[in-house]
Each structure stands twice: as C-alpha cells, then as structure tokens.
Amino acid sequence: MRHLGSIALFLLLDPSAWAFHPPARFDQPATEGGGAGNFFTGSPRFKRWDCSICHIEAEGRIAAVLGSEPGDLAQRGVFDPEQVYVLGVELYGEHRGLGSRANINTFIANVEDDEGRPQGRFAFDPEVFVGFFDRSLVAARGLEARTSWTLEWIAPPAGTGPVALHLAMLDGDGAGDAAAARTDAFGDDLTVAALRLCEAGMPCEDPLAPEEPLSPASCRVAAAGRSGSPLAVLPFCLGLALLARRRLRLACLALLVAAGSCNDPVVPAECPGRICGTIGGDGDADPDDAGPGRDAAIEPGQDASVPACNEDWFCGPWEASAGSDEATRSCVDRNETGTSECKPPTGPVTLPELDMAFFRCEVEPILDRGCSMMGCHGTNRPLRVFSRGRLRNSEVVQRVDSCLKRGEVDLAEAGSATVMCEGWLPHTDAEWKKNFDSARAFLMGVGSPEDSELLRQPVVGGMPHEGVHLFDRGDADYQTILEWLGGATREECDPWPN
Q1: Which of 143, 174, 277, 323 has the fewest C-beta atoms lying within 10 Å of its C-beta?
Q2: Which domains are present in the chain?
Q3: 232-246: per-residue pLDDT in tens?
Q4: Sign (positive/negative) of CA torsion 140, 97, 93, 17?
C-alpha cells in the first residue's frame, strides 16, 4: 500500500496501564475483570479515560504513525463523505517485550462527533481486528510482534460535520517474562492521540479550544503552564529522521501535546460521559477543600482545622483484622521532615457499623467499575479497591488448576493487573474485608452520609477528584452508595463471579 499522507500522533502521558488480553475483554463486566464497555481510547464517549488509567510505568517513548490513501485524511485532517480510506497504522519505536515469550502489541481506535456519537465505520480482516458498536470502533487482536496494520475507514455521510479519530496504542512487554507466555499491565509502553477530521467544505471549529481560560482545581497543567485540551495541537515538524521509513511520504502536521493536560470539565461533549461538572457548581463544594495533595489522597475524618506546616502526610486505608471493627492505618511524611506536629491520627478507631451483604452485592460492583483501575484506586490510597484484573491483595493462595504451575503463590504478585490464571480468582475473604473497611471508613467524622467523600469526590459538581466525576446525585449508583452509608441492609447474597 502506498502511504500518500502520514501524521505522527504522539501523546506523552502520566504512566499507567491495563492488561486486557483479547479485545472482547473490554466489553465484559468489571466484576469479571473487564472494561464494562469502556474501551479507553480517550474519547468523550468513554469518559476521556484512556489506557493510561491502568497501564503503569509507561515511558511514553512510542508513537502511532498514521498513513491514508487518499492522503487528505492523514495529511490535512479532511474527509470526503462516504469516501473509503485505506489506513496504515504503525507502532513507531517499539522497545518493550523484545525478549519476552509474549511480545503482544495492539491498538484501539474509534471515530465520533463532538457529541460523542460514533461516525463512519471500519472494514478489516477479521483475523487481525475485532469490531464493536457496528464497527465504529476497531481493536487489533494483539498478534505476536505486530507493529503495523492495514484497514479501511468508510467516512460518514454528507452533513455529518467534524469528527475526531481517537487512538490508543500499546507496546506490550509480555510481563517481562522470557520463560513463559503471559502478559500483565506492568512495564508496557503506550501512546494515546486524537486527530480532528473536518468534513470537506463544511465549517470545522474545534469545540475543545475554549475562548476563556479554564482552571479546574486539581488538574495537571501542560508544559506551558496553561490548562490544555486533550486535542490540543502544536504545529511541529518532526523531520525525516523520525518518519522517513517504509515508503512513507512525509506530511508531518502536528505534535499532539497533552502531557498532563486537564480534562476540561465544561466541554459539551464530555458532559454526557459524566465526568463534567464545574467545581462548586451546586454551591456546596470548594476547590480549597482539597488542600495540598488532598485530592490524590482523600482522607476520611481528617480535621480540616489542623494548621498548615511543612509536613506532607499521606495515609493509606483504614484496616481492621478479621472479625474486628477496630482499625488502624499507616501514614508517611512525603517531605521527610522528621517531625510529626501535623501527623493525622492512625488509630485505633472504631469503624462505622455498615452492612457487608449490601456492600458485597450493591456497592462493590460500582467501585469495581468506576474506581478500581490501577492508576486510580487500585493503589494504597485511603480508598483502595481490590478487584479482578486490577490490584490484588498480598496473601498466599493456591495456584489455579487451569494453569500449568502448581503450588502456592502470592496473589498480589501473580494476580495483579491480569485476568490470567490467579488474576481470574474471585475476591478472597481478606479482599472483601479490606474493601469493606476502606469504604466504610469514609463515614467517619461526617455529619450525614451526603457529606462523605465516598460521594462528594466522584459526584458531578463535587470535589475536584482529578476531574473524574462518575454520577449525578439522582443516578442509581449515587443513590445506592448513599443508602448503604445511611445504614441500608439486605439478605446475604452470592456475588459470583465477583
């Protein structure tokens, strides 16, 4: 195939990652280690979440190179209605997994309009790709050592207006294992990018470039010190040294710079995805509630009257031993001042008496779906969530019969960030208890359930929460958590397969 136009798509992101093996895993329930229908391309349709939400320790050294025939699509970002475009996609700069038994690389792409509606459709070899949502989204199957792919995109009909191509690409490292063919979410590299595509002869304003500067609390800022859009474009020619290979005719248009940029909470296309909401939009949230490092480490029951000092304490989750409600936690001073004047309490404290059965079958699925990703609460934060395909507890378990190895293994080492082998095990008793304790601790020190940060952080119009807001106050998920915090109970249930 001749590439008549090409563009290097880069996005340098905070490290993070995920390890879904077959593409269909993204469409599976979160309680089974799946993506719950979120394909993590960074598009508004998928809440602007991308694969960096769980692929940890990514270096951001790879690029996705796109070529098209006809070339206007990649070269100028322009499409003709109903035109069939042949696309060439290349992983440039592969460096992970070269010595592993499972050097799996892949990408996922979708095209949607400014309202998050899918537009156009892909055509492809079913041995190489899988399509979803009437082929408006395509996922490469992750074939061994694959670094280039060819497929087609059929543009939408006339009158559609501007759309965007969202692409997330993974350079897998095969779990860093030269002996066994396996994968996990650690050590991979990734890039995520978006390309604005304008319909020929139609207006094409970019809604992701607001006229007024925005400063949502807790967002990471771009290199220039200003809030940026995930589709921000900086014209920049990369040069022959980077792209002159495999007969690509250079048409270097842009370096998409969104390193640490904010998810704009007032973008119209973002609001239907439920991660919008201006801080303090309902009059009861204050960006200053976060404090230094507070949003990254929300702390139930923290005394806001403690004076500021040079110490910077970070506390893990409250934990109680099996059968006990008496909990303690560990806190570390990240500034290592050697003083403890402002150290938060570490217990023991008595955790609120809430219902475990209601938590297991009603609340836990919400946390698995919206909170448990490795780059979010799949870490040792005050709210820490153990779940399939994400973080697993450090405890000794028997290896599963369906895999080759036998004996005992640490679940955290063998099962974290994978759905293979021990990663497929349902919650252990210890994980249920730790998740339950971590969540119910957020009822301590509040006047009413509505004041709990378990609700105030993720609700639209609530606290900053890194720009991620999962539900409105009228949504079923919000009401379910509110009921549980208010003392709701239910009969014991079978949470299988969770």
Answers
A1: 323
A2: 5-256 (2.60.40.4060), 277-498 (no CATH)
A3: 222 222 322 233 333
A4: positive
